[in-house]
Prior knowledge:
Blueprint: H1 3-21, E1 24-25, E2 31-34, E3 38-42, E4 51-56, E5 60-67, E6 70-75, E7 78-83, E8 87-90, E9 95-98, E10 103-106, E11 115-119, E12 124-131, E13 134-139, E14 144-148, E15 152-154, H2 163-175, E16 187-188, E17 191-192, H3 194-203, H4 213-216, E18 221-222, E19 233-236, E20 246-252, E21 255-260, E22 265-270, H5 274-277, E23 280-285
Antiparallel strand pairs: 1-12, 2-5, 2-8, 3-4, 5-6, 6-7, 9-12, 9-15, 10-11, 12-13, 13-14, 16-17, 18-23, 19-20, 19-23, 20-21, 21-22
Amino acid sequence: MNNLFKKALAGVTVAFALTAFGVTALANGQVGTVTADTLNVRDGASTSSSVITKIYRDGQVSVIESSDGWYKVSFGDTVGWVSAEYLSVAGGTPSGTIAGNDVNVRTGPSTGNDIIMAVVSGEKVNILGSDSGWYRLEFSSGVIGWVKEDYVSTGNGTVASRGSSLGSQIVSFAKKYMGTPYVYGGSSSGGVDCSGFVKLVYNNFGIYVDRVAAGQATQGTYVSTAGLNEGDLVFFATSGGSYINHVGIYVGNGQFVHASSGAGRVTVSSIWDSYYSQRLITTRTLTR
């Protein structure tokens, strides 16, 4: 199979993947960066619309459209409206650089998709879109494929870090919600339950997780308690038995931050506490 045919086949495969995965495309190649300390994301283009969630300074979103001083944006699996006053939008096709050696380029936005090729650190790319923590990229060879955001340094010089660095960012963001009320079924700054809290935090980094703890426990990769890094997830069966019904975000030194129904708020606890150590079921990572 010659190289020209391989490239054409890759293009056809990726075009199919775009339809199958429902990618969020960048309208006119625009990416927005939050300039306020906290930016409300609403379900409509007005201050009277309900707040869905919040994004913090330097968070990045894909711009879908604009309307009378508002931008419709997407990040992770969240779509909403933000005030144009607090979003810096760059025109043109965003660019980036591969930040890692032997980085796999895939036909779709998940590790379950086929590998097209592997690329080396420093390769320049155009960012065509994003979906669930992955970038759709165009390479200098003309190949178009998907790479995890962890391995792409964006055009503004910000590196989407991986491993413990990304984990540190997740922990710092999660701790902003300390004291937030526990609300069963909640997943916003107004109130969260345990899995809603994890989903809210991970969404800010473009990482998709299931809505319930039991579903989240099937995602990512298993790690031992000794191998836990900041930002990893810890799962418990607090009702007895083995059914997972509670989750928290590991912050280091045996501690995790979580929305506790007992405490009635987002708080920090120890996985080695007698209560939690007896109910710990599994630990997983979605950042490595």
